C-alpha cells in the first residue's frame, strides 16, 4: 500500500511543478461547509461524513432531503398539487417530528408557498 501513497504524492508534486494545480476554481478560498454538520450532533459528525462520502445518509437526513425536495417542487411547480404529494409531505414531516428530528422538518417558507398555491385553487 505504501507504493500507492508514494505514487500519488509523486503525481501531485509533478502536477504542482508543471502548474497544473494553479488557478483552480476556489483557489485561496476555504473549503465549503459540510451541509450535514449543523444537523448532526457534534460527536457523530465524523462518522456521518464518512457515510455521506460513501453515498449513505442517516435515515432522518434522507427523509429531510426528500421532504425539502418535494416541498420545493410543490412550491415552485406550475402543475397541480396532488393529494398523494401532500400526503407524502405530511407523512415525512410527521415522521421527522415524532422521531425527535423536528429541526429537520420542511422549512416554513416552502410550506407557506404551498399553502398559498392551494388557496388560489
UniProtKB/TrEMBL annotation:
InterPro entries: DnaJ_C_subfamily_28, DnaJ_homolog_subfam-C_membr-28. Residues 7-74 form the DnaJ homologue subfamily C member 28 conserved domain. It comes from Silvimonas amylolytica. Residues 15-38 are annotated as: Disordered. This is DnaJ homologue subfamily C member 28 conserved domain-containing protein. It comes from the Bacteria. Pfam families: DJC28_CD.
